[in-house]
Every structure is written in C-alpha cells, then in structure tokens.
Specification:
binds beta-D-fucofuranose, eight-stranded mixed β-sheet, alpha/beta, 44% helix, 11 helices
C-alpha cells in the first residue's frame, strides 16, 4: 500500500509538472497539487533538542528522509531539552491529526499519559534513539536505536585490554565518568556498563558527574574534577562533545592528554564518532578510543512506517550495528558477550 502511495505521488507530481508546462488551467493545477498534498503521509517528529553533533546529524537524517518528494509531510519540533516541550509537541500533533508520531524522548520516565492520548487518537507512535519507560509497552509501536549498554561494555573491554597490555594493575586505573543527560537511555546504559566493569575489574571509579552531552558542560565538569582529584588517568565521556570540552579543560590545567596512560597521560575515551573534530582527536590519540553511535535513523524509521502502512507488525526493538575506533595498535579486537568486535582505524 505504501509503495502505491509513493507511485501515486510520483505520478501526481509529474502530472502537476506537465500541467505546468502545457495546457491546463490554474484551477486544474491547484486541484492536482491539493490531491498530491492529501496523499502525503504526515509525520510529526518530536526531537529532543540540539545538544550535540550526534543530535544534529540525526535531525538532518530525519529531515532528508521525510521529504515531499518521498511522499511525506514532516512536522518537526525541537524540544529544546525539555520534556514539557515534547509533550506539548505530541499534543499538537494529535490535534493536527498526523498519521504517525515519531518521538526521540529526552529521558525515559513520564510518558504514559501523553502516549495514552496518542493511542486514544489512534495515532501510532514510533520511538527513535532513546526509549521510554512505560508500564504498557503497547503504548508505542516500535523503537529503533542503539544498544547503549553494549557500547559501554565494548568500551570497558577496550580499557581493560589496553591497560593490561600497558602492564597496569586494576587498582591503578583511576577513572571518572562524565555522564550524559541523567535519566536518558544513552546515559543509563553507558553508565551501567562502566560501573559494572569497575566493580568487576577492581578499578577505582572516582566520580560520576553529568556533562549533559554538551561540550560546555564537559569542560566545566572536567575542570571541577581536576580540582577534586589529582590522580585521574581515565576519563570516560558519554559522548564526543563532552570529550572535546574535557580535553580542553585538561590541557588548560597544564596536564597531558593521550594514549600513554602508563607514562602519565590522561586517557580520554568517548562515544558517537560523528563529529569531525572528535575523529581527528581519535586519529591524533587525544581520544584513545571511540565507540560508534550511529545517528542515521531516518531511513530506518521510514522502513518501519512503510511496514505499518503495509499492515505488517514490525519488530518491537530494532538495534543498529556499531563499530569501535582507535588509532592505538596494541588492541585489535574486544569480545563482549561472546561476540568479537574489531577495532578499526578512525576514518
Ligand atoms: O550519544 C549524544 C546525544 O541519545 C545516542 O545523545 C544519543 C546520545 C548521543 O546527545 O551525543
């Protein structure tokens, strides 16, 4: 059915074009345009904000997928990092009678009521990126995004493998975690993975402080941590923007950032691999390792909408495969939960 909509769209758009070139009257053209508009699938997308390069790339992926040429009418709302704004956006989408609601929720809790309202209105909700914590999972059709805890486990496995190769004892690993937005799925998974690894391996986890996934907060939090502790040698940043801020703070404090942790460098690791500066830092060894987090969800969400349009029931949870990047040669792979992940050169 969806494919038929697409074909019809192309046909109508070409008819409008031909009409523009030739004989038809203004009124006929308008009618054809209106019919074309009516056959568009309307998608209301509530994005949580614009805190990071990951987020901006994700927004672009959605905007370049849900275009008129592709058969969609996209209504995009930026929640400016406030759940209340996202709830208002969803209520507006319901009033507008959109065909689908796509939600990238900031944090997990507090969605039951508004998602119940969407269900009352018979509008399917697709979650993208982070998840919601609702008692009734049928309040949303499906979700697509990353396995954030797995990303964290891969990173912890890399830290373990690398520090062992450098001949370090577990108790000599003094790590701080600059966390993401507290209560967001990405933060919960990445924080849990590090906390578990620290406990299991006997690392000294000095502090966990939120940097809200932004460069400015990453800088501020790192400067504060350096004043509190003089033995930090691993900084686990829950995204690249925080890492960029943290590196700046470390260097401004007169300390060295790098991969030579066994010779006194402060080693920074992070997540995403989207931003050009962070890839460059990874090439230069200022970020020792990046666990990729893939933001290109537009086509994935479109595939889910197509399935729903065709009357199918897509998988509830759809995970994206992700890589690991490092320019350190000492570790070539890590194994997590029985799966081997190759460590790739940053591109
Ligand atoms: O890692 C970070 C962003 O939820 C996966 O949010 C996303 C995270 C991403 O701000 O950069």
């Amino acid at each position: 059915m969806r494919k038929n909509i697409k074909k019809a769209m192309v046909l109508l758009l070409s008819l409008s074009f031909l009409a523009g070139c030739g004989s038809s009257t203004y009124k006929e053209e308008k009618t054809e345009e209106n019919t074309a508009e009516q056959s568009l699938v309307t998608v209301g997308f509530s994005q949580l904000g614009a805190e990071s390069d990951w987020r901006n790339t994700n927004t672009i992926s959605m905007q370049s997928t849900f275009t008129k040429e592709n058969g969609y009418n996209l209504i995009y709302k930026n929640g400016q990092q406030k759940q209340a704004n996202q709830i208002t956006a969803i209520r507006t989408f319901i009033q507008q009678g959109v065909d689908y609601i796509v939600l990238a929720p900031e944090t997990e809790n507090g969605w039951d009521t508004v998602l119940g309202e969407a269900r009352e209105a018979d509008i399917p909700v697709i979650l993208v990126d982070r998840r919601v914590n609702v008692s009734d999972k049928s309040l949303y059709s499906c979700w697509v995004g990353s396995d954030f805890e797995l990303e964290g486990k891969k990173m912890a496995a890399w830290i373990k493998a690398y520090t062992e190769k450098m001949g370090m004892e577990p108790e000599d690993i003094h790590v701080v975690n600059i966390q993401g937005t507290i209560g967001s799925t990405a933060q919960i998974g990445r924080t849990r993975a590090l906390a578990n690894a620290a406990r299991e391996n006997g690392w000294d986890l000095l502090a966990e402080v939120s940097g809200d996934f932004t460069e400015a907060k990453g800088r501020e939090v790192m400067a504060g941590l350096l004043k509190r502790f003089d033995n930090i040698n691993v900084v686990y940043c829950e995204n690249d923007n925080e890492a960029i801020g943290a590196i700046d703070a470390i260097e401004s404090a007169g300390k060295r950032v790098g991969t030579n942790i066994h010779r006194g460098d402060i080693m920074v690791v992070s997540f995403d691999g989207v931003n050009e500066d962070s890839i460059q830092f990874c090439k230069d060894g200022k970020i020792s390792c990046i666990a990729e987090c893939n933001p290109h969800h537009g086509p994935r969400v479109e595939a889910l909408i197509e399935a729903l349009e065709d009357g199918e029931t897509p998988e509830k949870f759809n995970y994206v495969d992700e890589r690991m990047f490092s320019s350190v040669k000492a570790v070539t792979s890590v194994t997590v939960d029985g799966t081997l992940y190759k460590i790739e050169e940053p591109e």
